[in-house]
Write a structure and sequence with these properties.
It is built from 17 helices and 5 strands. By secondary structure, it is mainly α.
């Protein structure tokens, strides 16, 4: 009963903090570019995920886990945590597992679920981004083409993610490239124009009427307080869920990869749902894509830094072959999701496919772990099989939508040239 109470109370705290984050982001759009306000929102919303991953990365470094040392231990010894070194190697694997689980939840549940929610709410919100079409599950959410920059950066980060397992760990090169990529993105959106908005209502509308310096101060207070609340509440929320799962016979590794990230991802999903409920689906999807981008860049890059600090010198965060497969399937899912969005829309049918691919892999893997299903393949083989499926489907979609892909990168290039003070190359001239 105590666990249930902890989960309920901390969950309500996360819910309340999520509303404060949404108010802060909408208020900030009065003074800074929307993309930058959403980027800050995304970082704060996924702060709990950073905390969980940092904890495991720190334990791995403090325990002396290295690629060479962990390779001398058997998988069984690492899973059982027989020695201090084995526990450190296990924590290194958990850091990667938690990160990949969070990323796949964000797309498989977040992108897919918010797309369906947006279309279902359209009759009440009159969201202009929702297009009703005849045919089975063909209605779609159309995204603003200004989101091309975020999609293009995520495309580059996804391409790099495919290479990460080849080094056997996460090291300095990954940190420099991925963190540098995110810094470049923030620098670009900071140079965007501040847009006038006439759709702000409620608390954000009231706060936007405040004068300087009180308006930006209110944003800082909302961001700071809600970020602290989320950081404080998600840990007992996640651990409470883990304990409930463990009490019902669910393995700890599965709980760390799927249940804990589900809890830590909840703030951003709630924030996006709030934005969608205000007929702001473009801002909502921008937040989701920005969250994915910072998790795919800052999260991977910073856990290597945390590991090295705990290790007492430069080191490479190690992981086993199972985690290599987890990174590949996560990158492949991202690749497929980008193929769905490259034409700046996502239909209910596409959202359902995205969700089904995600949930079937998780359920089959759970069934294999619990011996509920007997298949002539291992869990590792399952991950590789889904990776191939995602990549093949993504390549097929990119081929069919090659003109949309060309337009997407053209728009992203124009945004970059504009930020650099150069004339954009319009698509009609480029052709």
């Amino acid at each position: 009963m105590g666990r249930v109470t902890t989960v309920a109370v901390s969950g309500l705290a996360v819910l309340g903090a999520s509303f404060l984050l949404a108010w802060g982001a909408e208020t900030a759009e009065k003074d800074v570019p929307r993309a930058f306000a959403i980027a800050v929102l995304a970082v704060l919303a996924v702060a709990p995920e950073y905390a969980v991953d940092a904890l495991y990365a720190w334990n791995a470094g403090a325990g002396g886990a290295t690629i060479e040392a962990c390779s001398q231990l058997s998988p069984a010894a690492i899973d059982a945590g027989e020695t201090e070194l084995a526990r450190a190697c296990h924590d290194a694997n958990l850091a990667v597992a938690n990160m990949t689980g969070a990323n796949r939840i964000l797309i498989g549940l977040g992108w897919a679920g918010i797309a369906v929610f947006t279309i279902m709410r359209a009759s009440s919100t009159a969201d202009p981004a929702v297009v009703s079409r005849d045919g089975f599950l063909k209605s779609a959410v159309q995204l603003d083409r200004d989101i091309a920059t975020e999609i293009a950066f995520l495309f580059v980060a996804t391409g790099w993610a495919f290479l990460v397992p080849l080094g056997g760990g996460i090291g300095a090169l990954d940190t420099l490239f991925l963190v540098g990529l995110y810094v470049l993105y923030i620098g670009l959106v900071l140079k965007s124009d501040i847009e006038a908005h006439d759709h702000t209502v409620g608390v954000p509308e009231y706060l936007q009427s405040w004068s300087i310096p009180w308006r930006p101060l209110s944003v800082l207070v909302l961001f700071g307080y809600s970020g602290l609340m989320i950081f404080t509440a998600v840990e007992p929320f996640a651990h409470g869920l883990e304990e409930i799962g463990l009490a019902n016979g669910i393995p700890s590794f599965f709980m760390i990869q799927w249940v804990a990230p589900l809890a830590s991802e909840s703030p951003e999903l709630i924030v996006v749902a709030v934005l969608v409920n205000k007929a702001r689906s473009t801002a909502g999807f921008n937040a989701l894509i920005s969250s994915k981008l910072n998790q795919w860049t800052l999260l991977i890059g910073t856990i290597a830094v945390v590991y090295s600090i705990a290790f007492g010198g430069y080191g490479v965060l190690p992981f086993d072959s199972r985690q290599s497969a987890e990174i590949w399937i996560t990158a492949a899912q991202s690749f497929f999701a980008l193929a769905l969005l490259c034409n700046f829309e996502i239909s209910i049918r596409e959202a359902v496919v995205l969700f089904v691919l995600f949930i079937t892999q998780v359920l089959i893997e759970f069934a294999l772990i619990q011996d509920l299903l007997v298949l002539p393949i291992t869990s590792h083989d399952l991950l590789i099989g889904y990776t191939i499926l995602y990549v093949a489907a993504g390549l097929g979609l990119f081929f069919l939508r090659r003109e949309s892909l060309k337009e997407l990168f053209g728009l992203a290039t124009d945004a970059f040239r504009t930020a650099m003070g150069r004339e954009p190359v319009h698509m009609d001239q480029a052709d």
